[in-house]
Amino acid sequence: MDIDNPGRSEGSPSRPKANGFQLYPVSVNESGEGLPYAPEDWPHPGDKWVWKVGKRIAVSGFFMDRYLYLPSRFSLAGQGRCFASRLSLELYVQKHFPDVDVDAFFSSFSWKIPSKAYKRGVDYLEISRYQTKTSEHPLSDSPMGGCKAGNRFCSSLDTGEDSVSEIMFCDICCSEPGFCRDCCCILCCRIINKAHGGHSYIRCEASTDGYICGHNCHIDCALRAYMAGTVGGSIGLEAEYYCRRCDSRTDLVSHFTKLLQACESLGSRDDIEKLLNVGFCVLRGSKKTSAHQLLNSIEKAMSKVSEENGR
User: From CA 92, how far away is CA 103, in angstroms rounded?
Assistant: First the structure.
């Protein structure tokens, strides 16, 4: 990731202060290292965290989307993490550094970052006193308190330890208002349905530089866009899913092996038939032996469902 190091001219009376730091406004998508917007010399001397902002700006003049990345030595050790919210960072500190005073940790830098794009003539000292839940939790601007798509069942609302973010930074689709990486389809932007064991969609688990892609996609959408199944040409898919965000491929044979198992627990024949049809579309035409074997099982199951429906 390219890191920008903007100049830090001191003493401007129009600049806000937070935790004793003189804050300089930054541009959209700007990034940097260390103070005042990221920890420095923590947890060990010489450690510098990386910060980055998105595009959305709150009415207070501060960025709504801001991110923190662990020092580079963590990435080299395979522990790279991106924190997209204050809560996820707080959970990480509590888990890995239980003896650390969390309040003192957040006092060592400024979580709030003012924007250059905010209109001039605003009293930044007054803005720095502006305290809202949104400014403290920049991704919590939706009524649901965390999901930008307003989905009250979104996994991003899970405050357990597993919610600590290890996902790659995304300023493309994830910068769009109303799009939530955790519960929206990357192609149609609609909320995914995690019923039926979650086999109507696929989540890209590909890892890039230690960070997981984490984007979701409806299988139906991927099929219509020729990004799933067996596709010739330059894409060259073989019973695979192609992620538009990170260009990674995911094998769909194992994905639909689970689908076939899930069919046994579904009470609705319509749901079973729908899942089987999707699996059939994904696997047909593949030259993989494993895909052929699974396709035969799906075809038998489809025949059984048709017989039970009296067709």
Answer: 14
Residue with tokens 């194992």: 254
Which token pair is 297? 């099982």
Domain borders along the chain are: 17-140, 196-308
Find the distance separating the first CA and the last CA of the chain, reported in whole Å. Answer: 57
287 with 234: CB under 8 angstroms? no
- Cα separations in angstroms, 120 against 63, 84, 116, 192, 278: 16, 28, 9, 41, 54
Which two tokens mark 143? 């009524």
Number of helical (H) and strand (E) elements in the chain, helices listed first? 9, 13
The C-alpha atoms of residue 167 and residue 63 are separated, in whole angstroms, by 20
Strand stretches in 47-124, DSSP E? 50-53, 66-69, 82-83
Q: Among the residues of the chain, which ranges form H helices?
A: 72-76, 86-96, 102-107, 124-128, 133-136, 219-224, 253-263, 269-283, 289-308
Residue located via tokens 């709150």: 58
CA nearest neighbour of 4 among 113, 139, 140: 113
Residues 4-24 have pLDDT tens digits of 443 333 333 344 555 678 899
3-class secondary structure, 234: coil
Residues ≥6 apart with Cβ < 8 Å to 175: 54, 55, 56, 65
pLDDT, one tens digit per residue, over 169-201 is 776 777 777 888 888 998 888 888 876 556 689
Number of neighbours of residue 248 by Cβ within 10 angstroms = 16
| CA-wise closest residue to 178 among 150, 137, 214, 201 | 150
